[in-house]
Amino acid sequence: MESKNNKKTIRAWAMFDWANSAYNLVITSTIFPAYYVAITANLANGNRVNFFGKSFVNTALSDYALATAYMIMVLLLPILSAIADYRGNKKIFMMFFTLLGSVACCGLYFFTPDTLEMSIILFALAAIGYSGGFVFYNSYLPEIATLDMQDSVSAKGFTFGYVGSVLLQLICFAFVLSPKTFGITDASFPARLSFLLVGLWWICFAMIPFTILPKGSPNAETHTHNIIKGGFIELANVWRKVKQMPLLKRFLPAFFFYSMGVQTIMLVATGFAAKELHMETSALISIILIIQIVAIAGATIMSKLSDKIGNVKVLLITVAIWIAVCIAAYFTTTATQFYVVAVIVGLVMGGIQSMSRSTYSKYLPQDIPDTASFFSFYDVTEKLAIVGGLFSFGFIEEITGSMRNSTLVLCGFFVIGFILLISLRTAEVNAPKNSDFSAE
Question: Does the chain have fewer CB atoms within 10 Å around its N or its C terminus?
């Protein structure tokens, strides 16, 4: 394999984030949720829809579909990533999930009330494609960058992702907010066109990393087992290695708890503003763009700060800010206050995602072939955090009648994560040099 820190390889790697982040912004955060609610609210049963003979509240159905997609990946990724490392073909898996997700997004172009069932399935498949591709993408980080460069390279990936997603979002918004300018008379066409553009954007720009990134190398000298058995054997080997890494074992629980807060806030922020503050769609669009743009700066700032004080200290500062954000959200009553909170969210959102990935990468043994298997633990932890965070947020809202109370529960998750990070920092300081990762 070529030497690390190759600028061309790093740029190609970051372009994968550019390619697929448009899905996360357009499909999960903005245009798809608005379109979905609009067309399902017009059905005969009001807020309820029929899905293969069963009745669901429309928004609950989409939440269930997303949660199901995440749980499928929680079950599959450890096995698939172990197989990818065992065979040395993780780029093939990365390509498969990218194709699955992009084709599913293109299929959403045909989403109408008459195609609800198939469209919900495509929505779930797009989520599977997005989350599945990311674990193999993340696993390239320790292969393409040396230990001292992983923070900045990770930040570059997130920066490319935010820039690419905002660019396509602006293109989509031009059609959605001003359809008459383009001679569009079908009210559903701008949203459906956006879904098609996301799919095409995703697969086209992903061809850059697929062309340049190395395919990976097998970590077994011989392949005497069939691929499934070999995958399970590799998974067991990685689990044994993880148990022998005291810092990695401490980081994963901390990452789980603060991710329950981070990922949930990212998914419910617009709903909170619409429901609790009664903000208009145009204002919500502005907030989403603010968060994405500020996140670009956040990822870069946190990367530079980590060079001065270390990764765990930066994470402690960031999580402390998230705790303050949750408390502020509970007391937020005006649009102006929410805009201020949104700016802070954007700053720490980009920082904590980038810093978490590079910190985990640094805790791994460097120059190992089975990076996909190790990163599957990271990705599974994050997906379980999403499921747990969303369930907790929705459950508290349901029993108390207020999303504000749910923000306090998320605050509790951040507090637990903060305490675990303090424990990690203590262990890191006391760890012998050349253990999992040097603190400085």
Answer: C
